[in-house]
Amino acid sequence: MNPNLIKTFIFSLFIFSFIAVKAQQTSGTVSGKLVDATSSQPLELATVSLVSKIDNHTVKSMQTDLQGNFSLTGINDGQYLLRATYVSYLSYLNSNINISAASRQVDLGNIKLSPAKGVLKEVTITAQKSQIQLGIDKKSFNVEQSIVSQGGSATDLLSNVPSVQVDVDGNLSLRGSTSVKVLINGKSSALTGGNISDILQSIPASAIETIEVITNPSSKYDAEGQSGIINIVLKKNAQKGFTGSVSATVGTQNTVNTNAAIAYQNSKVNIYANYSFRKGTRVGNGFSNKLTNVGDTLLQSQNQTQNQSFTFTGHNIRSGIDINLDPKTTLGFSDNINIRDRDRTQTGSTLISQNNSLLQRINQNNFSHGTGTDIDFNIDFNHKYKKKGEELTANVNYSTDKNNNFDNLLSEYNDYTLPQPYSKSQQNNTTVGRGHNWNFQTDFTLPLTNGKLEAGLRSQINNSDNNYVVDTLNNTNGGFDYNPFLSNRFIYKENINAAYTNYQHQFGNFGLQVGLRLEDSHIRTSLTDSVTEQHKQDYLRLYPSVFLSQKLSQNQTLQLSYTRRVQRPRDRQLSPFVDQSDRLNYQQGNPDLRPEDTHAFELSYINYFTGVTLTSSLYYRLTNGVIQRITTPLSPTNIDTSLTTFQNIKSASNAGYELIAKVSPSPILDLTANLNVYYRHIAGDAAFNLATTSGYAWNANLTGNLKPFKKLGIQLRGDYQAPQVIPQGKMRAMYGMDGGIKYDITKTLSLGGNVRDIFNSRKFRSDINYNTPYFTSSTVSERRFGTRTGMVTLSYRFGNNGIPQKKKEKKDGNNQQQDQDNMPDENGGGAAPGAGGGAAPGGGVVKGKG
Questions:
Q1: 444: β partners
Q2: CATH of region 3-120+808-839
Q3: Which of 78, 514, 691, 728 fits a 20 to 30 Å CA distance from 61?
Q4: Rounded to two decimals, what is the model's pTM?
Q5: Helix/strand/coil (H, E, C) string of 728-749?
Q6: Where does the pLDDT of residue 136 fall: very low under 50, low under 70, confident under 90, or very high at 90 and above?
Q7: Which H helix or E strand runs over 596?
Q8: pLDDT score at 2
Q9: Is the separation of the CB atoms in 349 and 305 below 8 Å?
């Protein structure tokens, strides 16, 4: 472990601890608990305000927690009024609050609020959802506000989310780490167990409601994912009555997207369905230049160029029904079907020279066609008990996937060292893949005095079967012969059983959560080619989590957390078969790979100002047994062909600082900025000729939303990834900019347009070096997945979606609540705070029943 890294982290921890201690050196505290006068049930998210009698100025204001508790700290000596409001309840007023040297701790105990008579039966406040909702342990991003991703895919959407990066192949990374767990609707399934980049490309952005980023998950969550969890929440009806929408997108590179959604909800059922279609072409290109020195006399170069065209179509169908069996029990059935089709054409050439003399020229012309179908079924049960907050949930999930791929690989060789230099090889590869996943899960939440207890069980069964058949050209008769040495069948079986418990307790402004997760994992693999090779892995591990939080003030919170995480090797990383489809670049898995073991620490601080929200985190991850791609020449005598394998190297550590800021300087402008600065240290490993590498890196993005008038929205987004170290070299810098505009023609019809990668600048570039006792080699490469695209989208909403809700809002003075004192209310009335106070800016429709 790097000593400087540890010193930096400990010093930062000391600074944050000093801030926390200083923040607690305050004068007085006023605390209590709000409960229903009839049932004695706690009233959560009610608004409590403390007002100075001298100048009628509000000194402190907050919302009660889930148990109805409140604690107003940092109160100077003086006389105050305390007021508590909750929607459809009479206000509470206490005008005799005195803070002095004789009494600086005022505990009001249980404060009973009585239901008001004759108030509105329902108060509806319509507000635009905030694009980003920041929390200490989770960040939620409302993607409906992302104009630059309109008409795109889930991949396009994720590339616009702070903390998330997407590479040239559509693979995700979080805070610079590719070891991230992807969930859909909070669950693992076939949708996330296969080729996740293909799945995300086929899911339209219009089908997604929210993306949640959890950087240091508690024991309640699956332990997998070194850097955390990305949860993609698909849209589900949340409005009563009949609602619907349709949209259509056309754009450059043959882009055509459509989406249709319809739903109906009443007090008994909630029925919804969504259909999306995507079609388009992405054009990419790249090159790779490798220089190899053998001794002092031999210099060999290998120059490759590649162009590709990727055409895809995708259908996504989601439907479901939620049935309210009684006021506290819901049974839900849902499904998600993803059907996709992909054609890829690749052309390229390779020149191999020795001491500036051309030895070989290789031309490649490859074509592949792939189809895939993923089906996901869910049964969800939810029951709320009489005790507020006590809840039982259960889920049964079954998913299956089918993936069929056909590849035609044609290579022409001109070897100028042979008497007959020209030769040709052609190979047909057929892959038939099948997968079946089961997930059983149940969770129980029990509220306690000033806390709660959570517990749950989960069992996950994943099976996949991939049969890879290769036929090679017979140059004698012109036909294709089955090649048993290149064909193989790989079967992967995984069974993970888990149990967890979490305990939370609130000590005034100090919060504690401790959890423990036990996971029993069993992995079985079987490879059949010329022989049958079987391997197994079994491991039982405990994954603890600890969260400490300190509320410094109403608007400031500090949290320190520790979790243990795991990253299990995937099936392709475990298969020992040598993939020789590219004659110059072989690939092979490693059946002896062990899971990565990560210890993650995070210190987070969140602060809300008027018009500004800041969340910042110091984090440190130590990973033992890091799984890395290692590229070496195939043998000391064959330096033209490289072999890429997966190995567990000693360790790697990341320490960094992340800042997310949302600034609203005016009603027409808001800015969201994300900065992530980190230091990466990769321990050397002599077994693989890896030297120790380390260095600083950073990435940043900035999104600006401008609304010059009510019907027009403009969005610009830019991102930059600085150079960063990798085990055998470094990745170079990458940057790009996107822009979009949306105009509401009517209340139900809108027109939008966007351009992704405006300056055509997003390219993934790397420098790879390795040294052996026999030679040294360096490779410079550059690739891009797609070029600039532009799209135009027309959207129409109907039903309740097309009828604007009337804002029914009344002041809570003499009209609604029996409070004759003319004191200020920062929330502008009793209705909105009772529904949760700050909930309305979070988005959607806020309702309070009377």
A1: 392, 455
A2: 2.60.40.10
A3: 514
A4: 0.71
A5: CEEECCEEEEEEEEEEECCCCE
A6: low
A7: strand 596-609
A8: 52
A9: yes
